[in-house]
Amino acid sequence: METDGRRGGRVTLATVADALGVSRATVSNAYNHPERLSAALRDRVLGTARELGYAGPHPLAATLSRGRVNALGLIYEDPMSFAFSDPAAVLFLQGVSEVCEDEDLALVLISGGPAGAVARVALVDAVICYCDVPIDGRLAAIVDRGLPFVVVDGPRLPNAGHVGIDDRRGAASAARHLLDLGHTRLGVIAMPLVDDGWEGTADRDRQDRARYRASRERLIGYREAVEAAAQDWSAVAVEERVPYGRDAGRRAAAALLARDPAPTALLAMSDELALGALAAAADAGLSVPGDVSVVGFDDVPGAADAHPALTTVRQPHREKGRRAAELLLRPTATADEHRLPVELVVRASSGPPPHR
Amino acid sequence: METDGRRGGRVTLATVADALGVSRATVSNAYNHPERLSAALRDRVLGTARELGYAGPHPLAATLSRGRVNALGLIYEDPMSFAFSDPAAVLFLQGVSEVCEDEDLALVLISGGPAGAVARVALVDAVICYCDVPIDGRLAAIVDRGLPFVVVDGPRLPNAGHVGIDDRRGAASAARHLLDLGHTRLGVIAMPLVDDGWEGTADRDRQDRARYRASRERLIGYREAVEAAAQDWSAVAVEERVPYGRDAGRRAAAALLARDPAPTALLAMSDELALGALAAAADAGLSVPGDVSVVGFDDVPGAADAHPALTTVRQPHREKGRRAAELLLRPTATADEHRLPVELVVRASSGPPPHR
DNA sequence: CCTCCCGTTTGAACCGGTTTAGTATCTCCC
DNA sequence: GGGAGATACTAAACCGGTTCAAACGGGAGG
Question: What is the CATH number of domain A71-164?
Fold first, then answer.
C-alpha cells in the first residue's frame, strides 16, 4: 500500500485513496468506471475528493497512461496569426472547429516558426496541415513523431490523407467564362509565386516555379482555357505583387490597366486580390464590368457584398475544414483523398467587353 | 539498470539508453542539457537515436514531469465555431495568437458545450476566457483545476486577471455624438439581452437584466448620455432580435424605422447590427445619413468599407487579445486589470437630422 | 456442506520521461 | 603524494495517473 498520499501538499488521487484507506485503483475507477464500484463506495470516494479539494484526475497523467490527448492540431502555412486575416482561412478554421465541437476535442493551433519548435512538442493526437509547403520544419516534426496527419490544399504526401479542390478546373472555368463573354485581352493578378519578394510580370518560367501547388494549378487552368480558345497565353500578363493582400491586388490591377492596350478582363487568383482590383478600377475611373471585368477565386463572404458583387469561383472552405478533421477521426483505408467541388458563381463584376 | 528498452516495439528513451548501455538520465540530458554531456557521448546518443528512429522525448511524458505544457487555452462564450463568424472575435484571436507565436506556445481552442467536458481535460497552462458568462461549466472546470485565467470583457472575478474596455463610456460617446448633431429621436438596436429567444422592444426591466456585462454597460452609457442631454430615455425604443447577427440588425432597424414618428438616428450595439441597419435603411428607400443616421460599436474591418462608411466606436480587439495573453505569461501582482481605450470614429453614416 | 460464480476491490506493472543527489574519475596544485 | 575541485555519468525517486490479472467475499445452486 502506498503511504504518500500528500506529497508537497498537492492533492492527488493518492491523497484521496489514503484518506479513505482504499487503493488508488478504486479512486481512479470512481471517476472513469463508476459502474465498477458499489454505489456506496463511489459516493464516499467522490465526497471525500470534494472535501479534500481534489478536482479529479490530472488530465496530463491520465493522458500519458491512455496515450490519447483528445486534441487535433492545426498547422498553417504562414505565421498562425496570418490565418485570422484571411477570410478563407477563417472559414476553414470554422469548419474544423465545428467537428472538434461535435467530438469534444480541443483544437490546437500550432504556431511557431518553420523550425517547428512548437510542432515538436504540441500535445495532439493528429494534425491538419493547412499548407502547401512540401517540407517545412513543422511538418517534419509531425512526421518524425509519427502522428497521423492530413494535408489540405497542398501536395499529396505518403501516409497522409488529403483534402483539396480541383484548382485547375476552377481556374479554367473562370477564364472560360470571360472568353465566352468575348474577351480577348486578359490579365492575371497573381499571388506571390516564389518566395523572393519579387514584383513584376511573371514569365512562363517563373509561373512554372510557383511554390504553391494551388498557384501552379490555377495558372495552368487559366492557360489551358486560353489555349483551348485558340488564344495566345504568352500575351496574357501575369502580374505579381507582394505581400499578399488586397493592396497587392490593387497595385497589380493598376499596372495591368495602365497597359496599352489594356486588358478588358482581369483574372484574380483570389477574392482578396480581386477586391483590390475593384478598388484599382475605381481609382482609374473605370466602371466594372462596363470597362473591365473582374473575376476572383474563393467566394469569401465579402465577395457577394462587394460593389459590384464579385463573380468568382466558389470553393467550400468550411467543408474542407470539416472533411480534414473527419478524415483524421475516421480514417478510411479506401478513400483518404477528398476532392471537393468548385463552382463558378456569376455575379455583377463580369460582362461582355466594351465595344471598341 | 533498466532492461526493458523495447517494450511493445515502441522506441522510447529507454530503448536508446539500453542500446548504448547508458542510463536513461544520460539520454534525457543529451536532449535537454547537452552541455552536461561530453561531446563524444552526446553525439553517440543522438546518432543512435536517429538510427533507432527515436524522435526525441515524448512531449506528454516530458510535460508530466515538468508540469508545464507550453500552451494557452481559450474559452469562447458560444460554441467555439461561432467565434469565427464574428469579425471582432477573429481579431481578438489574432492578437492572442501573435503572442503565442512570439512565445512559442500552442493556442488551444477549448470547445465543447457549457458542460465543460473539454475544459476539464484540456492540456493547457492557463486560460483566456473570452466570455461574459459569470459561471459556466467550462469556467468552473478551469477554476476547479486551479489554472490561472483571465477574463476578457466579462465580470471581474477573484484570483483572475481582467482585460476589457470602458463599454459605458464608449456607448455614451456614440450617443452624445448623435445628440450633439441635433438628433432628438433615437432608437437602439440591441443584441440579445436575455437568453430566452424573445424579440421585441425591451423595457427598462429587461434592459437591467441583460446577461452580458458589455450589453448592460453599453445600454447604461446610451442612457446616461440621453439623460445628460435632458432627454427622456423611456422614449428611446430598444429593439431586440434573435439570433445575433446582421439579419437581426436589419429586422430591428426595419421595426424602428416603421415607427411614427420614426427615429432620425439609430444606435447599434455592434457593427454587425449596424451593417444590418444600413441594409434596412436601403430596403426602406432611406438615405444614410440624410434620412437617418447609424452609429455602430466595435470598428470591425468591414465598418470602414460599408456604404456609407460606418461611424462607430473603435475598440482595440487585437490589443485585447495580446494583453490577455501577456497577462497570463507575465502576471503582475500590481496591475491585473487592463482597461483599454475606446474612441469614437466619425465616418459617413452619421450627420444632422433631416429638416422637418 | 461444497462449488461455482459474480460483483467488488486491490496490488503491481506501466505510461515515458525529468531531476536530484550522489559516485567515480580526472585534473590541478602545493 | 594527497586533498580540493571539476567533470561525466548514474541510480533511484518522482510526475499522477490507468489498467489488468488476481484476490476476496458472499450468495445461489447442487
Answer: 3.40.50.2300
